[in-house]
Amino acid sequence: QSALTQPASVSGSPGQSITISCTGSSSDVGSYVLVSWFQQHPGKAPKLLIYEDSGRPSGVSSRFSGSKSGNTASLTISGLQPEDEADYYCCSYAGDITFYVFGTGTKVTVL
Amino acid sequence: QITLKESGPTLVKPTQTLTLTCSFSGFSLSTSGVAVGWIRQPPGKALEWLALIYWDDDKNYSPSLKSRLAITEDTSKNQVVLTLTNVGPVDTATYFCAHLYGGYGGANAFDVWGPGTMVTVSS
């Protein structure tokens, strides 16, 4: 199974908004409302930011939002803060053969 | 509060079998909709989903690793065990276990993760 495609890096200045894309196919991202997004700081476990395309767990800042159009999901971080500097991964359910697939990961740099 | 923690060897020789244990608390793997998954991450690389076991003992595996993976549960001990046979250097990674709840009101995503355990495959 192929990993979902994410840009290798995205950067922005404090206070700005950035968007990370996650491109899959009609077999995964485009077929299920089951895209999730994770934030991972160096040496730490991933943290769930978004579930079911656009749901936000309690305790996650409203600055993080998820959306989807066709086979591409997106994570938007508004009001960028220094602590947002981390790696970000998307994940999608991909049916009863592949099950789950993660994205290639995006490094976010706060300038 | 849901917590998970991985344990196992830090060094494994090529061709050996790797056995990892995920010990969890704060939930029961007997509850409808609950699952525990394993995900790994080679140094400096992306996350890779490996396996998932559900409350009803249904099991899913990554197609590319299916022939080498096995996931089991010990409900009485609140543990999930992952075995990976015939390991090689490419299996060097941090291995994470994570909770998933697909029932009513659940996130249907890996919502709580263990801290991970680093495994090196080398002779």
Tell me what you see in this structure:
The complex is a heterodimer of chains A (111) and B (123). Chain A is mainly beta and 111 residues long. Helix content of chain A is 4%, strand content 43%. In chain A, strands 1, 3, 4, 7, 8 and 9 form a 6-stranded mixed beta sheet that branches. Chain A is globular and about 40 Å long. Chain A starts with 8 loop residues before the first strand and ends with a strand. With 123 residues, chain B is mainly beta. The mean pLDDT of chain B is 96. In chain B, the strands form 2 sheets. In chain B, strands 2, 4, 5, 6, 9, 10 and 11 form a 7-stranded mixed beta sheet that branches. Classes of the chains: A mainly beta (111), B mainly beta (123). At the A-B interface, strand 8 of A face strand 5 and strand 10 of B.
Note the run of SSEs of chain B as H and E: EEEEEEEEEEE
Q: Average pLDDT value of chain A? A: 96
Record field, number of beta strands of chain A: 9
User: How much β-strand is present in the residues of chain A?
Assistant: 35-45%
Beta-strand content estimate of chain B: over 45%
Distance between the termini of chain B: 40 Å
The largest sheet of chain B is:
7 strands, mixed
The residue fraction in helices of chain B comes out at: under 10%
What does the oligomeric state look like here? heterodimer
Largest protein interface, residues of each chain? A-B, 25 and 23 residues
Secondary-structure element pattern of chain A, one letter each? EEEEEEEHEE
Total helical segments of chain B? 0
Global outline of chain B? globular
